[in-house]
Amino acid sequence: MSTIQTTYLCFNGNAKEAMEFYQSILGGTLRLQTYGEVMGEKNPLLKDRIIHAYLEHSTVLIIARDTHPKYNILAEATETTRVRIASPDETMLSYYFTKLSKGGRVDMPLTRQVWGDAYGMLTDKFGIPWIINIIATEVLTYRDYREKTRV
Length: 151
What we know:
By secondary structure, the protein is α/β, with parallel strands linked by helices. Helices cover 24% and strands 32% of the residues.
């Protein structure tokens, strides 16, 4: 039996918009189901909300939903959790960083770090915090880092 770790995001009525935004950047297949489709919800405030959203790509799985107002369990994202994407593919991850931060904010620019990786943090326009980590193909010493990043 295998185990998989995945990201599960909660939204307040804009899960469809957010997941379509992520799909436009990350690619993959997006499947959406509404409260109306799954539970026969008739309430106009709920029937079109997303109960299950799956964005599947060869290396990414993001699951999301809109919260049900009855349970009031949506909390703001905090610094305790960030969605992380890591790869040595600098072109792809630089693209992700630029696109995901559009309309949001850059919390830490995507720059080379002392340990060799390029690393940056952002919060997207939906309030979801991300880490983009371009994995170094070489490990730098602190001295090497200082020499390579000298302006």
